Amino acid sequence: MRDDFAVNALRGPASGLSLTPNHHQHIMGPIGMPEMIMIFIVILLLFGAKKLPELARGIGKSMGEFKKARDDFEREITRGETETRVKDAPAKEPHDS
User: Fold this and answer.
1) Averages of pLDDT over each 10 residues, the chain, 97 residues
2) Which domain holds residue 77?
3) Confidence (pTM)
4) What is the pLDDT of residue 68?
């Protein structure tokens, strides 16, 4: 009991540390407007105003290609699952009475 008090006293209420094995802490939350502005300023300083439209165009094209590849992959997986179900389904033969 005394050890728990000492650990909590050293750790402090706002330290964010956890000694319990099943306790999960989120280190980072969602990105807010101030963070987005800071990221934009850093990118502007790194690449310059003339390169930003070119950089954004390249990122947009690559995101479009990624989305297209993802959709093609999902379509191929779905088609493969459908073919497997059709092949594995028992053949229905008409019974003569």
Assistant:
1) 50 50 67 91 89 91 96 94 80 57
2) 53-88
3) 0.45
4) 97
Question: Each residue of 3-27: b (16+ CB within 10 Å) or e?
Answer: eeeeeeeeeeeeeeeeeeeeeeeee
- Tokens standing for 56? 């954004």
pLDDT for res 52: 87
The count of structural domains within the chain is 1
The answer to whether residue 42 is domain-embedded is no
For residue 92, count CB atoms less than 10 angstroms from its CB and return exposed for 0-12, middle for 13-18, buried for 19 or more.
Answer: exposed
User: In one letter, which amino acid is 94?
Assistant: P
The CA-atom distances, in angstroms, between 52 and each of 43, 47, 61 are: 8, 7, 14
Look at residue 19 and tell me if it is in a domain.
Answer: no
- 84 assigned to some structural domain: yes
5 within domain boundaries: no
Q: What is the spatial distance between Cα 75 and Cα 35, in angstroms, rounded to a whole number?
A: 37
